[in-house]
Amino acid sequence: MNGNEKVPQAARPFLGPTPSGRPVPVKVLRKDRLDWKEKVALVEIVKGMAFTLREMFRPRFTIQFPEEPLPRHPSTKGRPVLARNPDGSIRCVSCGLCEFVCPARAITIDPGESEDPIQKEPKDFQIDMLRCILCGMCEEACPEEAIIMSRDLLMATDSRTKAHHHLEDLLVPAEKLQERIDYTKRMYHKWNPPQS
């Protein structure tokens, strides 16, 4: 059928009865051959292939990881770590602000007493890296600059237990994190009111 032949009365579909009670016939169009408009689609296919061939010879921006190192900037947010002072003490005072602001509920602090009668320090500090979304809100909320987003982007593990970092796994000397600490001071300073 090429669409010009009449469909027998019994094969005609209908939309339902009209107010007069007679069914409304519907014309069924069937095409077995492409017309000239549909054949022109081959031109569109050729255009697409030409674009693909053109892009194949342009310079690539893909980094061949892990052979090539990833570019890092002070704004890079990697695995969160805890800063350790040069005297070996932990900067964290177990205030719980980072645990409170974490949208993924990835941080758990077990507060404990320290040798200093005024300040506390964590007995255990856990970060579940399976839940952490690297948003940096913990770093922004910390009043002691104790939790810092490091530049460590390699966090893949082969078991779930290795993704749970405890206090001993998180401690890093503050000197290694100084570039990020300076960057966050500059960035978060714009939210602080000027002091006179």
Q: Would you give an account of this structure?
A:
With 196 residues, this protein is an alpha+beta fold. It has a domain at 80-189: Alpha-Beta Plaits (2-Layer Sandwich). It contains 6 helices and 8 strands; from the N terminus they run ββααβαββαββαβα. The strands form 3 sheets. Strands 6-3-8 form a 3-stranded mixed sheet. The protein has a 3-stranded antiparallel sheet with strand order 4-5-7. It has a two-stranded antiparallel sheet with strand order 1-2. A hairpin with a 5-residue loop joins β1 and β2. The radius of gyration is 33 Å and the shape is elongated. The chain starts with 13 loop residues before the first strand and ends in a 7-residue tail after the last helix. The mean pLDDT is 83.
Notable features of this structure?
single chain; 196 residues; alpha+beta; Alpha-Beta Plaits; three-stranded mixed sheet; 6 helices; 18% strand
Shape call: elongated
- Give the C-level CATH assignment of the domain at 80-189: Alpha Beta
Catalogue the unreliable spans. Answer: none
Secondary-structure element sequence?
Answer: EEHHEHEEHEEHEH
Instruction: Give Rg in angstroms.
Output: 33 Å
Percent of residues in beta strands?
A: 15-25%
Structural category:
alpha+beta
Strand order of the largest sheet: 6-3-8
The helix content is: 10-25%
- Total helical segments: 6
Distance between the termini: 89 Å
Total E-strand runs: 8
Largest sheet entry: 3 strands, mixed
Average pLDDT works out at 83
The CATH topology of the domain at 80-189 comes to Alpha-Beta Plaits
Give the second-level CATH assignment, the architecture of the domain at 80-189: 2-Layer Sandwich
